[in-house]
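sorry for the late reply, my laptop died twice this morning and i had to redo everyting from scratch. anyway the thing you sent over, i finally got around to it. pasting the sequence first so we're on the same page, its 133 residues, then the predicted structure underneath. double check i copied it right bc i was rushing
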Amino acid sequence: MHLPISLLGIFLCKIKLKDMVTKQEFDLASKSATSNLMAFLPKMISYKSYIQKAVLDIASRQELQDVRDSRINQGMIDKLCKLAKNEWLLSGDAQSLYCAAMSVATIVKEYEWGTQYLVGDGLYEIAKRIQNT
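ok and here's the structure:
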């Protein structure tokens, strides 16, 4: 199904005008996920799987070498966030943003780039990057 260009433009504008998830909303989603992990886990796994596969199509040779050599690469993290945004925008709610942020933070940890996004306000930092990408 193809949309006329004018309708596609309206659709894209609505996506861009989505309200940002606040820190308070994100923290509530985090608490909800922590207390009901089994409800959130399938979405996190699905997001992570999609992001890990899709990033291979858009990563540069240098970025892939940085992953292989465990050298943190902010450009690669930006690409992970952009892919996570695609998943988050399907619903645009705080719970989906939490799942997307957790997926990116877990991938960063698996790349051996550290755990800074899994502790403190690091997860919300990733969530902001996802929203702003």
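The chain has seven helices and no strands.
thats about all i looked at so far, will dig more tmrw
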